[in-house]
Amino acid sequence: MSFGIPAIMKVDVNDPRPQVIIMANTRELIRQVASVIETVAKKTGVTVCVGEQGTKSFSHIIITVPHWIANMCGGRVPFDLSGLKMIVFDEADEIF
Question: How many CB atoms within 10 Å of residue 20?
Answer without folding.
Answer: 26
